[in-house]
Amino acid sequence: MITATAEHEDERGFFTRWFMSTNHKDIGILYLFTSGFVGLIAVAFTVYMRMELKDPGVLIVTEN
Q1: For the whole model, what pTM was predicted?
Q2: Within 10 Å of residue 53's Cβ, how many Cβ atoms?
């Protein structure tokens, strides 16, 4: 028995596919990447805050 499969080619551009999508799979992938990026920023701020609090009086980042 031979079965034919229909190939679906997405003719939309990169921006249109990923940032104007209503496909729940694409939205889920965007959600995972966004949460990972925000998590990395949170870790960076946490490390920075701990470095500042480790030694009182020593500033890691100054005003200038």
Answers
A1: 0.65
A2: 8
